[in-house]
Amino acid sequence: MKRILFAFLLLFSVSIFAQKIQNQTVDAACAMCQFKVKTDKGCAMAVKINGKVFVVEGINKKEFGEMHSDDGYCKIMKKAVVSGEIKKGKFYATSFKYVD
Questions:
Q1: What is the tens place of the pLDDT at every residue in 50-87?
Q2: Could you tell me how far CA 79 lies from the centroid of its own chain?
Q3: 4 membership: H or E segment, kind and range
Q4: Taking the complete model, does pTM exceed 0.85, yes or no?
Q5: d(CA 20, CA 2)
Q6: Which residues pair with 85 in a beta bridge?
Q7: Which residues pair with 25 in a beta bridge?
Q8: d(CA 24, CA 21)
């Protein structure tokens, strides 16, 4: 009985602390410059999911061009289709693609 209870609590805690996102269209931009979130990294890619802003981990931000150029993610907010997981207050991306 203890094992069943432990397994249930473990599964329940994982579902609370980690949220999976699949092919969701979100706002994407610099956490500090566009979303006004202070980060320990300075400028960092972030996404807004369900009204909350999460710094993105697991992507190479250099793939998205110069962040401070006229169309860089520090200057303008863009739409992106993302997949990944929210855990510990960050979004861990497995897929991240800008859309027009």
A1: 999 999 999 887 887 888 899 899 999 999 999 999 99
A2: 13
A3: helix 2-17
A4: no
A5: 28
A6: 20, 92
A7: 81
A8: 7
